[in-house]
Amino acid sequence: MSESEQANAAAAALRGGRVVVLPSDPDQQPIDVPASVVEVLVDVLDHLQRGEHVRVIADDEEITTQQAADLLNVSRPYLVGLVDRGEIPSRKVGARRRLKLADVLLYREVGESATLFLQDEHGVGRVTTPMIGAAGTGAALRAVGEACELDPKFIERTVWSELSHTSKLPWYARMERPETFVGRRAAIFGDFTYPLGLGYALAREVGLDVVACGTYLTHLERDFLFHARSFTEGPFVEDDPQEVAGRIEAARPALIVGTELEAPVAEDLGVPLLPLCYPAGGRPFVERPLMGYGGSSILADRLDEALR
């Protein structure tokens, strides 16, 4: 029985039942586990049987502002602004700020819940499509236009005008020889937005076989896996560099798209690396962002260099 099957069976057995701890000392009485703790155990087992990571967070566990920025997928100056405005509580330890991990995670959940509430209750537009690739950029622009109640014909004219004058990616995917892409395996790893946007663009627009796509942002596991499964059968969430390297090696890609931290595994496999996801060379962002139609042209140029 696999670990997932064991977790599923254990969760089913615990639901509605009681858990008794039998002490190793035979002179001690059995101890009933509180029902509230049993509920937590069932919730943990539910996550494990879906193959998701689980981490128990103490109420008072603290992190740095940089760690908080990484968790929220924002820059550190932006995170500091949130703290200065009191949107995320903090305390000073000497000259440095410390934030409770639970407060940082709650901030993201509140933001997500707030946008869903505004959408459902007041019809406020919500745009979640990454502007990566020609299709992703067009979808995002259409969603913004609809949210702003702009003339759909104006939006379509703008999209097609920019697409025809700015984006190389659709033409590159159609003009290159089919054998350049068909059957070529690609592995992608990075933060959240870039792997998802690049994965969709490479699989659906270019035609590469995305055999693995992962993120190191474990707190976004459920969202990441949900979206990544739309274009790959190999989504994963992992923050251990050695485990990441192992997952990529097992996928046997002909191309790796990721951070510069994936350079050693690309060298070991003898395949090209496109370091298009951040962190890149100690900088928080890549030198030339891939967002928008202009970014899709950069992607086309980099793919052309790597796949020839």
**What is the number of helical segments per DSSP (H or I, 4+ residues)?**
13
Largest sheet: 5 strands, parallel
Which architecture name of the largest domain does CATH use?
Answer: 3-Layer(aba) Sandwich
Oligomeric composition of the shown chains: single chain
Task: State the CATH topology of the largest domain.
Answer: Rossmann fold
| Name of the top-level CATH class of the largest domain | Alpha Beta
Q: Can you list the strand order of the major beta sheet?
A: 8-7-6-9-10
Q: Please give the share of residues in helix.
A: 40-55%
| Average residue pLDDT | 83
Content-based structural category: alpha/beta
End-to-end span in angstroms?
45 Å
The CATH superfamily name of the largest domain is Nitrogenase molybdenum iron protein domain
Radius of gyration using CA atoms only: 23 Å
Unreliable sequence segments: none
Strand content: 5-15%
Count of extended strands: 10
- Give the tally of structural domains: 3
